[in-house]
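Example 170.
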Amino acid sequence: MKPLPPGIEIVGLTEADIPGFRAAVGSVAAERRWLMTLEAFPEDATRGFVRDNLLRGHPAVAARFRGTVVGWCDIVPLAPFEGFRHNGRLGMGVVAEWRGKGIGGALLDAALALAPRAGFTRVELEAYASNTVALELYRSRGFEFEGRKVGARILDGRVDDLICMARRSG
Ligand SMILES: CC(C)(COP(=O)(O)OP(=O)(O)OC[C@H]1O[C@@H](n2cnc3c(N)ncnc32)[C@H](O)[C@@H]1OP(=O)(O)O)[C@@H](O)C(=O)NCCC(=O)NCCS
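Predicted structure in complex with coenzyme A:
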């Protein structure tokens, strides 16, 4: 595992991180390539999301540099129904200028380490087929290919597939 850049800390996301988390999501979304959303979620929705994760013990971690959120990884329930509670859905991102420095790997490891205690023995995600860095990162952490949603996104003149992956630990 790469040593993290000096000053980067991987921490549980707190209420104090809400504005920074929202800004980080907004900056990655605005690239229009990696996330489904193309902009930050509204303030209220972001606050509700972070508070709910804290209250329910869902894995939600952040990378901080001098108090600023530069990356995140969270695992939230896929569906609130009996029979599905062992399924978590993973989302993550690292702000562009901080990529390729080991932060994404460290965030993913930290969130996955918290998953069993939240009851998530299966963690799933979807990534665009063009997102080779993310797909390689997930593969390296034991996620397996489960399927492909062909032509799921048509954006800015480009057609992209969604790759479905999951990791089982229980
Ligand atoms: C995917 C993402 C989170 C990875 O974070 P990162 O900090 O850049 O990743 P790391 O530096 O920790 O690298 C983790 C692994 O990714 C892969 N990787 C990183 N940079 C790569 C590159 N340029 N080419 C190919 N693979 C690469 C490697 O497998 C690497 O493992 P290693 O550390 O053993 O070399 C980041 O690129 C990102 O935020 N992308 C945009 C948002 C996004 O795609 N979110 C996920 C949506 S499903």
